[in-house]
Every structure is written in structure tokens, then in C-alpha cells.
Design goal:
about 120 residues
């Protein structure tokens, strides 16, 4: 029930518009902290590093830094939330939309997933 209430608070506070702008991202509760989460599979380890560099460039330009994970040799996972508030803000959705707009298809092994 608490998870559902937190999601409702985010939707009410940021509006459905924010969620609609990042349909590929999942809203997850990680130990009481709401985050945007997305996962991809890349072709190779080196392609994974290139993927992370492209995301890091966007994050640095925005001054907003997500948690970036290269798990195994080809699994990329990204979690976005605002550490200072312990949850989601409009900036998180903006960054997720900008990451979603990157041309990353040449790096991907399969269709992006939300796992």
C-alpha cells in the first residue's frame, strides 16, 4: 500500500505529463526511495562503455548525475533520482527524456528492456 501511495504522490506532484514523456522508464521503489529505472543490453563490453560515456556527457551537461551500472559484460542499468530530496523531481524526468532521445541503437544488442 505504501508503494502505491508514493507512486500516486509522484504522479499528483509531477503530473501524468512527466510520466508520459518517459514511457520506457519504470517507476520503482528502492528501499523507500522512488527512482526512474531502465535497462538495456549492449553488443559488447566496449559498446557498453561507449553507451555510458554518451549518457555521462548528457548528465554532465545537465548537472544531474544518475547511477550508471555496467553489470556483467553487456547489461546497462540506470537509476535516476534526486539524492538531495531522496526521491523524484522534474529534473529526473527531464534527464530520463534526454537519455531516451540519444541515438544508442548502434550500441544495442537487442530491443531495449525495462528490466
Amino acid at each position: 500500500m505504501r508503494d502505491a501511495l508514493q507512486v500516486l504522490e509522484v504522479v499528483m506532484g509531477l503530473g501524468l505529463f512527466a510520466l508520459a514523456k518517459v514511457p520506457e522508464w519504470n517507476l520503482v521503489n528502492d528501499g523507500g526511495t522512488l527512482k526512474l529505472h531502465r535497462a538495456w543490453k549492449v553488443k559488447t563490453f566496449v559498446k557498453g562503455m561507449e553507451f555510458l560515456r554518451l549518457v555521462a556527457d548528457v548528465a554532465e551537461a545537465e548537472g544531474h548525475h544518475p547511477d550508471l551500472h555496467l553489470v556483467g559484460w553487456n547489461n546497462i542499468k540506470i537509476d535516476i533520482w534526486t539524492h538531495a530530496v531522496g526521491g523524484l523531481t522534474e529534473n529526473d524526468f527531464i534527464l530520463a527524456a534526454k537519455i531516451g532521445g540519444l541515438n544508442l541503437h548502434h550500441l544495442l544488442r537487442i530491443t531495449p528492456s525495462n528490466k
